Structure formats: structure tokens, C-alpha cells
Amino acid sequence: MIETDHRYLRYALMVAQRSREHGNRPFGAVLVSSRGRILLEAENDQDVTHDCTGHAETRLLAEASRQFTRSLLAHCTLYVNAEPCPMCAGAIFWSGVGRIVFGLGSSRLQELSGDRAEQLQEHCADLLARGTHPVEVVGPLIEEEAAQIFKEGTWGASVFAD
User: What is the DSSP letter of 107?
Assistant: First the structure.
């Protein structure tokens, strides 16, 4: 499973890179079925649209909820290049997605962003563990690789600026 997880995380990194190229913060999400089929992908669009809910996960899950049943989503995995924030963890829970895999942990993201980004310091696994149905959380995986898009020189200091 780990090799498969790494492959889809790298795909999420590619989506995150595309997000940055489109003028947004570099976050990407990919929804994969239990049979390994990519069902949806989404970029962050928060900066371009000025929508505070425009995180890659929330955008993807809104569309997934329209297209797929909760029973199908329960058997899917959501791959994201960075650990979901509390808002996105809530969206994951309410969507019914059964598994999340992330590359870069929120603690490491905070180290990289310093005081340039507002963040709620809560791990998604801790939030999801308090829910009434289980959500498997795996990560961080390939953390150094996932960190590259957030490092100075790779993205520039303006990514987390207001």
C-alpha cells in the first residue's frame, strides 16, 4: 500500500504545483477509488477567487458529494500534499471519505511558513478521532519531498502573504 500511497501523493504534489502556477498557494487534492481509479482532483483557488473556503480539499469534497454516494466515498482515499486544516478535516468527516493520506505534516508546514500564514494548530487525526465514524489518517509520508514546493526559492515569500 505504501508504494501506491507514494504514487498518488506525488500526483497530489503535481496538482499543488499547478495551483501555484495558477496564482494560488500550492495545495492539491486527489480522490482515488478503492480500485485505484482517480475520481477527482482539485487545486487550491483561495487567492484567485478570494474565497476563504477555497482549499483544495473542500473544493474536491464539494464536487465529490454531488457526484458520488457516501457509501462509495467511504471506500475512497483522499490524497493531499499537506495535512488538512481543521476546516478541511471537518469536510472530510462530513463527506464520509474513509481514508486520508497526506505528505507534509502541519507542524512542518508551520516551520516553513513561520509567521507568514495563519494556521489553526490542530492535527487532522486528532480531530477525526473524535468523530462518530472512523476515518483512517496516514501521514506524513514523503515529507521532505512534499516540503520542496513550500521552501523559499521554490515558491517565494509571497505565498503566505496577505
Answer: H
pTM: 0.91
pLDDT in tens, 60-85: 999 999 999 999 999 999 999 999 99
- Look up 122 and say whether it is catalytic: no
Rounded to 10 degrees, the C-alpha dihedral 15/35/1/57 comes to 30
Q: What is the pLDDT of residue 161?
A: 44
- Cα separation, 36 vs 46, whole angstroms: 28
List the catalytic residue out of 21, 41, 43, 57: 57
E strands in 3-108? 28-32, 38-43, 77-82, 99-104
The amino acid at 138 = V
